[in-house]
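Model the whole thing, not chain by chain.
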Amino acid sequence: MQLFLEQTINGVALGSLYALFGIGFGLVFATLGILNAAHGTYASWAAIVAYYALDWYGAPFPVAAAAGVIAGGTIAVVVDQIAFQPLRNRGTGLLGALITSIAFWIILDSLAGQATEHQALAFPATSYPTRMLELGAMRVPIMQVIVITSLVVCATGIYLLIQKTLVGAAMRAVGWNSVAAALGGVNSRIVILLTAFLAGATSGLAGVLAGVTTSNVSFTLGEGLMLKGFAAVVVGGFEDVRGTAVAGIMLGVIEVSAAQYLSTSFRDGITYTLLLLFLMLRPRGLFGSTNFLRA
Amino acid sequence: MQTLLDLWAAHSSTVAFAMVNALMALSTYAVLSTGVLSFTTVVFAAVGGFLSAQLVAKLGMPLAIAFPLAAVGGGLAAAMVAGAFLKLETHWMALASLALVLITRVVALNAPVLTGGVNGLVIPRRVSLGELTVVLVLVALVFYRLSRSWYGLAARAVREDPAVASTMGISPYRVQFIAFLISGVVGGLAGAALAFTLQFISPETYFIGIAFTMIASTVLGGSFHWFGSIIGAAIFTALPVAMQAVVPAFEDVAKGIALLVIMIFLPRGLIDPRAAGLRRAARARIAAESNNA
Amino acid sequence: MTNIMAKLAIAAFGAALLGVTGAIAGPAGGEYSIGFVTENTGPLAAAGLSYYRGANVALTEINDKGLAGPGVRLKLSEKESGSDAARAVQAVTQLAADRAVVAVTCCILSPVAGAVKPVVVNEKLPLVIYGATLPGLPSPPWVYSVVGLPGPQEVKMTKKLIEVLKPKTVTYFVNADNEGFQNRFKAAQKVMEDAGVKTAGVISILASDTDFTAPATQAMAQNPDLIMVWTTQGPAGGIIASLRQRGYKGEISASDVISPAPMFRRIGEPLAGIPFPINFAAELAKTSEAKAFVAAYQAKHKDFPDTYASQGYTAMYLLAQAIRGIDGPVTREAIANALSKIDLINPNVFGGLPLVNGQAEVANSLIANWTKDGQIAVWERR
C-alpha cells in the first residue's frame, strides 16, 4: 500500500511537470494557432539561465528560478517576433510558422548545447530544498510538493486569467479570429506578446523544476518535456487549461504505474497508445470544445 | 579531371541523400497539395524501409522487387491512416500525425523480430545512384502528369477552399484519401531508398529528425508545386555540408538561420507558381503597354 | 692487385646494398591525414570531446618524437557526426574520397560503428574504433578496435562484490534500448545467480529518460541488499542521485560510465563509495607511460584524462605503430597490412594491451570508486 501511494505521488509530481509544460504549449497552439516546435527549448534555456544565475551570482534558489522563468518568457517573445510576426500578415497559416519554429528549434538547441559546453549540468544539492516530508510511514521529497503546488497555482491562475478577466477575453478573441478581435477594439499586438510571454514563462517554470528534480540541465531537457507535454495537450484538449493539467497528471500516473506494475519497456508505448486512442475516438480531448471536425 | 572525380566521390553520398529527401518531400507534398499538413510520411517510410530491408536481408530478394513491395506496404499503411484520421480538422491532423510518428518509434523499438529492435538492421546491399535517379524520375513523372490532370485541378480546388470545392461536386474526402494513398506509395519508396542508402536503419532513423527535415524541404522549395519539393530537398540536404565548409563551429545555428531567412522572405517557398504567373502577367502587361504607347 | 680490386668491389657492392635497403626500410616520409569522425556535438558530446582531446595529445607526442617513423608527420582530418549514424556514414564516405586520408577512426555508439563498417570495407580504408563496445565489430584487415571490452572486468567486479558484500538479493537497473548494457547486465546476473544470489527485480529504463524518482522508489521497495546499475551515463547519474535523495542507504554498484570527472561535478556526493570496474584511471596510474599521458593531458587541459581520453590516445598510438612498421609508401593497404600484423599495442597506458583478431584486450582492470572529495581511489569496503 505504501509503495502504491508513493508511486502515485511520484506520478502526480512527474505529471505536474508535463502538465505545466503542456499549458504553455497549448496556450500558443490555442491562442496563436501555432504548432511551436521550439517550445521545448524555452524550458531548456530557462533551466540553463537559472543554473548560471545560481553559479555565477550565487542567487538564492527562488531568485534563480524567477530569473529562469523570466528568461523563458523573454525568449518566447523574441522567437514570436522574429519567427512568427513577419508571417502573420502573409497568411501562411500553420505551415509557415511551423517551419520557422523548426528553424528556431535548431538554433536554440545548438546554442543551448554550446552554453552548457555539451555537458549535462545539475543544480548543486545545496541550492534547493532536499528535505523529505514525513507523512505517516511515507516520505515525500519537498521538491515534489513544490512542483505539484506550482502546477495547481499556475493552472488555476491561468484558468482564471483566461476565463474571468478582460485580458483573458481578449486572448480568447484573438485566438478565435484576430481581425474580428481588432475590430472589437483589442490590441492584438499586445495580446500576442502577452500570450507568448505567458506561454514561455510557464514552460520555463516547468524547465527549471524539471532541471532540479532530474539533476539534468541540458538541451535534452526540453525535448523530453516537449513530447510528453504535447501528449498532455492532445489528451486534455488544447483549449482548456484544466484539461491539460488533468491530462498531464493522468499521464504521469499512468506512466509510473505502467512501469511499476506492467512492464518498463512498454511504458512509453502505453502513453502513446493512449494518445492514439484519444485522437481516434475523442479528438477534442477530455475537456476541449467541439470544433474539431471538418466542415 | 581527377579533382572532379574526387569532388564527385566526396559528395556522391550527399547527392544520394538529397534524392532520398526529395522522395520524402514529394510524399509530404502529395497530401500538402490537398490542404492537409501531415507528418505521416515518416510512418510510411518506416513501413517501407523495414519491409524492404527484411525482404532483402532475410529472403534475399532483389531490389527490383523489394522497392515496389515497399511502395505497396506504404500504400496500405496510408489507407489505414487515412481511414482513421482524415475526419480530423487541420490542426488536429497535424498533432495526430506527430503522435503517430512517436508511436511508430515505440512499436519499432519493441518488435525486434520485425525491426531489429534497439540495434537496428544492417543492410547488406546498397542502392546505386543510378537506381535512385530512376526511381526519382519515375515519381517526378507521375507528379507531373497528376498535376496536369483532373486530379491536380481537384487537389488545388480542395486546398483553396474545401467548402466551395464540395459545392462544385468534388469530394474533398475522396481527393484527400487519394492523396494519402499517393503519399503512402511514395513514402514507402522513400523509406526503402533511405534504408538502402544508409545501409543501416534503426527506430531512430524514422523519427522526428527526418519528419522536420522533410517538412522543411517541402515548404522551403515551395509547397505549391511538386518541383519545389525536389529543389527544397536538394538545398536542405546541401545546407549542412555547405555550412560545415564555411562555419564549422556554428554549422547547426547557421543552418537554422538560413532556413529562417528563406522562410521569412519567401514564405511561399522558392518555386512558387503564383509568383511566376504574376511575373509573367506583369511582363505581358508591360509589353502590351509599350506596344500601345 | 685483383685481391684489392675484388675487396673494393665487394665493399662497393656491400655499400650499394646497404644504401638500397636503407632507402626502402621504414615508411616513406611526409605528412599523412588520419580521418577523425568527431562527436563533439550531440548527446554524447562530453565523451566525444574526451576522445578527441586524448587523440590530440597523442598526436602531438607522436609528431614531436617521430614515433610514426622518421620524417613522418600525422594530422587529423576531422568531420563531425553528432553521434548520428547517417552523418557518420556521410563523413566516412567523404574521408574515403579524400586521397590524402590514409586511415580513419570513429564511433562511440555501436550501431553507428556497425553502419560505418560496411563503408570502410567497401572503400578499403582501415578503421580504428575508439569507443564502441559491441564485440564482433573488428574484422582484420580493415576494422580494429582499441576498446577494452567490458565483459571480463565486470565479471571480475561482480565476483568481488559477492565475496565482500555477500548479498542475498540484487535489483538490477538496465537500458532497454542498449544491447551492450543488456549483455553486461546478463553477464553480471549470471555470475550472481550461479553464486546463489536471487534477483529481486530488473528495472528497465530508456537512455533518453530523465526522471528516475519512480524507478528508484520501485527499486527501494524490493528491499535488495545490492543495486547494480547497468545503464548509460545520463540515467546512471540520475538513478544514483534519486536513490540517495530518497534515502537509500544500501549498497550500489555501477559501470565505468560514472568515472569521468564531469559526472562527479554533476552528481557529487551520492556517487561516493560506489564501486565500478575501470581500465584506466588517471589517479591510479602506475606505469610510466600512463603517468606521462596524465601529465601531458593535464598540462594541456588542466583536467585529469578519463577512460575515454585514454582510448582516443591509444587509437592514435596504434596507427602510429602500424605506420612505423611499414616499409615503403604509406598507403591504405599498407596500413591495413601492418595493423593485421600487430598483436601487442606498444606503448600503451594500460600496463599491457594485446590486440587479438583486431580487438584490444585489457588484462588489468581495477575496481575503483569516487571518494567524497572527488578523487578516484581503489575500492575498499568500509
